[in-house]
Write a structure and sequence with these properties.
The structure holds two protein chains of two kinds. Chain A is about 55% helix and about 0% strand. Chain A is mainly alpha-helical. In chain B, the strands form seven sheets. Chain B has a five-stranded mixed sheet. The radius of gyration of chain B is 23 Å and the shape is globular. Classes of the chains: A mainly alpha, B alpha/beta.
């Protein structure tokens, strides 16, 4: 299994949202770390759930929501860094 | 004179409620509220605009609606119904190709578009041979001096497309009479009234959304949509919206539990908690019951073909779970009939497992423009019962026991409540990868909902490109969480695809 790096996680998420980004004329490199996937309307709450489940499965980790503030859950930078930390610890 | 009679049951019940409860809230979304009076005015104005755009009586009485959950999209749904058409929901979160296929198959001549999504809607429709008129409901005049076209029980309510095992989504046309039969059943069961406030957590492309809308609007109640992200803080949403009725898929509740949102006494305002769309684990139902101590907890069951939900089971916390630790799916509601049948369509005995066959006024006539699929699933039994074969394996442990869901007869799985045919994903993968492909359901665990992993019989396919291509054709919930390249796909002794062997590859990590 590939280890999770924040860069890889970010790439996976943005790859998943390629269509939605394109619809807003954004390319992955336009997306800053503080970009909030939910508030920017790229996904809804179900989409958040689906991305978290994808990351958990892909990197064999389990999110601990006590460790990750709700605001960070939907921001791509903090989310990717959390997955990297979690994956390194498991 | 605005309201010409007769109207279909969905229209007439709404118009009556709008008169009685004119100043009460009908819908709340994204910080905006419309009272019944306002919702009626907007809906009538949209109906008038649609009629003006297209005064001819269309052979196919269907109009699209391209919108997310905003107050305007709800007005659009009602406007389309008042114009005498069924609504065909398109989803801005679906790929353009998917939306285009829906429009093409439905043959809509007009689409009501949320102004925020106009560019995307233009992209969707411009690729069509006969692009429909896009109607943006802004600057609407109050409707005056026009007669609504008549509608009736046989008028379409909505046309939805659900995953199809042949690689093509299946259309399900639900008529006003089907929805009215469902609403009659739930009115008796839940005693909905004008003080109720219902959650609305579903996109219009998911038929469960019809329960919240029409369930509320028949009784003067209010539908409440959470703002973006509010669902991740469910206690705040339920409290701020003063919800009395919660309706979601179990996966949502499971996720809220993981977020720490289901502590005891979190939702004291709820009087009714309803779950539908996938199997409900008994343990989760118990946790929910403690979080919502004043609430009845019910498990509903029903495929789109039998209109929203057609069986229900009231859960007593701590009661023994049914098959696989799930809450039973219970008994048919209203005038629905449910039989458990074997392969020859004879009823099986209590204790035996069979396929669930559904009949009654909630069951639709067949699939939209698909005789073959209709003939496969809509059948008459030797005993003369006409019904829809669900593909769900169920059992009634004893004659008096409620029905229990056991599993599927085919490759259909549920992802966050959405129905997904693995064969549909496989056919898209095959086309895009130019190689054999197999999709398997990643089983649901205590920590999360089921998902999809796909295996491609190739060593050279670019998975990043493949994912992009698949995402351009399938809704997000159908895109595999992972694409794995394998030299070849394992076959079982019968020469069929061996999903068990594929699952063991996954388990090996």
């Amino acid at each position: 299994m590939q280890p999770a790096t924040a860069a890889l996680v970010r790439e996976l998420i943005l790859e998943r949202l390629a269509e939605q980004l394109a619809a807003r004329s954004l390319t992955p490199s336009d997306v800053p770390p503080e970009f909030d996937l939910l508030l920017e309307g790229l996904i809804d709450s179900f989409g958040v759930v689906e991305i978290i489940l994808m990351l958990e499965q892909r990197f064999a980790i389990e999110f601990d929501f006590d460790e990750l503030p709700a605001d960070d859950l939907t921001r791509i930078g903090p989310l990717a860094e959390y997955v990297e930390r979690k994956s390194a610890a498991s | 004179m605005i309201a010409a009679e007769p109207h279909g049951p969905l229209c007439s019940r709404f118009l009556r409620a709008a008169e009685t409860f004119s100043d009460r809230p009908a819908v709340e979304a994204a910080g905006r509220t419309l009272t019944y009076g306002e919702l009626r005015r907007r809906a009538l104005a949209i109906a008038a605009r649609l009629l003006a755009e297209d005064p001819e009586r269309e052979a196919i009485p269907l109009t699209g609606v391209y919108a997310t959950r905003t107050v305007d999209s709800f007005a659009a749904v009602l406007g389309i119904l008042l114009r005498g058409h069924g609504y065909v929901p398109l989803n801005p979160r679906f790929p353009a190709l998917r939306n285009r296929e829906i429009l093409e198959r439905a043959g809509c001549r007009a689409v009501v578009v949320d102004p925020d999504h106009l560019d995307a809607a233009v992209e969707v429709t411009s690729g069509l041979a006969k692009p429909p008129t896009l109607v943006v409901p802004t600057g609407l005049q109050n409707a005056r001096d026009f007669e609504l076209p008549p509608s009736g029980p046989a008028t379409p309510a909505y046309l939805l497309f659900t995953s199809g095992s042949t690689g093509r989504p299946k259309g399900v046309l639900v008529r006003q009479a089907n929805v009215a039969a469902f609403l009659g059943a739930v009115a008796d069961r839940y005693d909905l009234n004008e003080t109720d406030r219902l959650s609305q957590l579903f996109d219009l492309t998911f038929d469960l959304s019809a329960f919240d809308m029409f369930g509320a609007w028949h009784h003067g109640a209010c539908v409440c949509c959470p703002a973006a992200g509010e669902l991740l803080r469910p206690a705040d949403f339920v409290r701020e919206a003063s919800l009395s009725v919660w309706f979601s898929v179990p996966s949502s509740a499971m996720f809220l539990d993981r977020l720490g949102g289901l502590k005891p006494d979190t939702f004291p305002s709820l009087r009714l908690s309803l779950f539908c769309g996938e199997a409900l684990p008994a343990e989760l139902a118990n946790t929910w019951a403690a979080a919502a101590p004043n609430s009845i907890v019910e498990n509903l069951y029903g495929p789109t073909e039998a209109t929203i939900a057609c069986t229900a089971h009231r859960w007593e916390p701590g009661a023994p779970a049914g098959a696989n630790g799930f809450v039973p799916i219970g008994e048919p509601i209203g005038a629905t009939k449910a039989w458990v049948v074997d392969e020859e369509l004879h009823e099986v005995r209590p204790g035996e497992v069979g396929q669930l066959l559904l009949g009654g006024p909630q069951v639709v006539e067949g699939y939209w423009d698909d005789r073959e699929a209709t003939d496969r699933s809509f059948v008459t039994t030797p005993a003369g019962n006409r019904g829809y074969l669900t593909g769900d394996r169920v059992t009634r442990p004893t004659e008096a026991a409620p029905l229990e869901y056991v599993g599927r007869i085919d490759g259909q799985i549920k992802v966050l409540g959405h129905r997904v045919e693995l064969e549909e994903i496989e056919s898209v993968l095959r086309e895009e990868a130019g190689a054999e492909a197999a999709a398997v359901g990643w089983p649901r665990t205590s920590s999360g909902a089921a998902g999809i992993v796909a295996f491609i019989a190739s060593t050279s396919v670019d998975t990043v490109e493949l994912r992009r291509a698949v995402s351009a054709r399938l809704p997000d919930y159908m895109v595999p969480r992972e694409l794995r390249l394998v030299g070849e796909l394992p076959l079982n002794a019968n020469g069929k695809r061996d999903r068990k062997a594929l699952l063991s590859i996954l388990e090996a990590g």
